[in-house]
Amino acid sequence: MAEFVLSRLIRMTITIFVIVTAVFFATRLSGNAIDFIIGEGITQEDRRILTVYYGLDASVWEQYWRYLGSFLDGQFGLSFHERRPVSAIFAERLGPTARLLACSILFTVAVSLPLGILGAVYRKSWIGSAVMAFAFLGYAIPNFVLATLLILVFAYTLNLLPVVGDATPWHFVMPTLALSLYLVAGLTRFTRNAMLDVLNQDYMRTARAKGLPERRVILKHGAKNASITVLSVIGLQVAGLAAAGNVVVESVFSWPGVGDLLVRAAILRDYPVLQFGVLAVSIAVILVNTTVDIAYAYADPRMRLRGR
Amino acid sequence: MADLASHGGIRSLGLGAAGRPLRGLADLWVEADWIRRLAAVAGLLLVAVAIATPIIAPFDPAGQSLLARLRPPIGFERAVPDHLLGTDELGRDVLSRCLHGLRLTLGLALFGSCIGLVLGTALGMLAGTLGRWCDTLVMGLVDIQIAVPFTLIALLLVAVFGSSLDVLVVVLGVYGWEQYARIIRAEVLKLREMPFIESARASGASGLRIAVKHILPNVASPLVVMFTLAFSNIVLLESTLSFLGLGVQPPIATLGSMVGTGRDYMPSAPWIVAAPAVCILLVTFVVQMLGDWLRDKTDVRLEER
Hints:
heterodimer; A: MetI-like fold
């Protein structure tokens, strides 16, 4: 077991290091960032001063060394645009994103668990078909189209909901819906499949044979067992998907969160901000994956031997 | 078992022995329910429209006419007779722009998914056949690719190389390679132990020959399914990037960028957004429907990301 954990940790460290390095050299490939920050029409002298100011005059290796060092002082470098520590900028943006994600995941769970169970129990009637059709729609509608159509209907036509920012609870309605549909579709399908697996088990027949009411059989014996697999998926996949969807939804609704920040940073070529965002998200994903791997290995000894 | 299943899959996809493809497709059509048939017909129509766009588009997609700006579709007040779906903020014909956008979106997605297919298959084959350090390297790259959400990679690439058509093609081409690579590698590892590969090796066939003549045909079926799924995801990715202003640059338009730029005029001229948005929905519906169908058909276990 210790050997397995160690090998996982080593691989995790290597992966993180490779990503950190790749991200750095990728951002330096495009030539001097000064040209983009300042634009044309400055004198050579000013250009030189600015290059020194942004620390772009040093050799690539020195910049790389400095970049690694910037992780240690907790600032993660200065934003090209705001000249503030990247960590401070992200700290401001984290709250709104966390609130939106929490809202969306709560909504997703609240909607898709009952839908998935219904879809599995009534899989042969029109209810099951309706659930699957809904799940299909959720996959097929891109979240920016949904967001735009929601704005068109609820803000401009019916004048019911506010569009920009996160000031009141009403501001959460449309972004949550836009972000959740895709997640709801995924989780509903998953719950349905997990439930279908459980419904065929012997202990379900036993529960029915004991004379328990159908409702109790399905909720207590079925859903409870299916929930174990479902929960493990919520943590992994839903969080990953939410991170991607966030970028779009936040920038549509001008939500003052991390996703919006990343899109702006990409357009303005604010490399320190962008690279930190990419690194933070990937490292989070890697940490979660490694933890899950180790947890599985702990629970199931066969996993330890398989290695990969 | 594995190669039996994949052979069955190949035939039912119409890729089997010579002379069978048409029958395979006909079988598929007979088995399908009405909604899938509808999707198949709509898909063919979309492709036909995209190919014929230069002929059937009524106007030049970039041709401005400032006198007829922001006119609504025919049937509404203030409409101008020639512009079926109205005009945008520069007086360009929305229908023509939608058609050209559709053509570009489908073309980009096709091109991008072909690049991903070739890249991923080649790497997966290399990893599976060469093994050792090559395998470790490729699978390490796959691990990294899985760890970083693709939207972020796309943002990074666009930020570094600027947003242009070439960069967009590269970004779309990189998408999905790791899924091909993983599946192909796993299949190759399974196939390598099969008797027919062993006999090929024994009769002195080179590694390349075995890979191309014996292994590739046997992984064709999962490849086709992955390709459709990747295609639909790439359509979404392209639209999303263009919508965010990170894809093609004006005056060229894809459906996504039309929705993105049209947003500013939404209160007064909703049709500028609505027309391309409906087109995107149509495309994604059809593509997803056909992808699902193929997946059901071949029953390849694909790991959802």
